[in-house]
Amino acid sequence: MVLHNFSIHINSDCSLLVQFEEEPNLKLTEFIHSFIASIPQLNLQGYTESVAAYQSVLLIFDPLNWNYQASIQQLEQWLNKFEPSKFNAPKTIKIPVCYDSRVAKDLTAFCEVKNISIKELIALHTKPSYRVEMLGFLPGFLYLSGLNKKISLPRKPVPDVKIPAGSVAIGGNQTGIYPIESPGGWHIIGKTPISLFSANHKQPAIASPLDFIQFDAISYDEYLDYVD
Q: Are 104 and 217 in contact (CB under 8 A)?
């Protein structure tokens, strides 16, 4: 899979944005992460790190040691011939979630807006295996695809100032989990008692792009057992 429909733009005084024209899809996600893994082979002058998104890659450089024209030329030549490598079989990570208004402040209102019961919401939310498309917004925040359209809901017009760590949420056609306390505009429908991010671990986040997440509903009492 060689992608010729791409463009490279100067994003700031220390970064380039590689933009792909295809709509988000699994092949593009695999291509993006394979491309990122290959970048060290290019020995780009001043290159420090990359950040993946659904249709783009942000490349960050040391502004004091960077020739942006040479970097753009190298990247264009590389991408015009690049073939992604095959990935190892992705992991499936099961995450316990308590769907209870005592730990999920938007649960009742969400179900009222969608005209479904909490039981129906739990069934619809726990059925899919969600693909980790990317990590971002917060350290360890997993953007997950595969949400049933019946429970999609646009983000809140006014974000909340404080959302507790572990909050499971829906925003638009995506679901995700807040790994740390943060402001946010997604609808909180549940909470997991387990830690999703530890900066001291070799792999800080609980999952990597292309892994799968499976939510497992637990009761409020079971949630308390985890916490205690």
A: no
Alpha helices in 88-208 (DSSP H): 107-114, 118-126
For helices 118-126 and 107-114, what crossing angle results, to 10°? 90
Q: What is the mean pLDDT of each run of 10 residues along the chain (228 residues)?
A: 77 93 85 90 92 90 92 93 79 96 97 97 97 85 93 95 95 93 96 89 84 96 90
Q: What is the pLDDT of residue 29?
A: 87
- Rounded to an integer, what distance in angstroms lies between the CA atom of residue 37 and that of residue 25? 19
Q: How many CB atoms lie within 10 A of CB 196?
A: 22
Q: Which of 53, 38, 42, 10 is nearest to 174 (CA)?
A: 53
Q: What is the DSSP letter of 46?
A: T
Residues 6+ apart with CB under 8 A from 73: none
Spatial separation of the C-alpha atoms in residues 204 and 202, rounded to whole Å: 6
Counted residue by residue, the chain has a size of 228
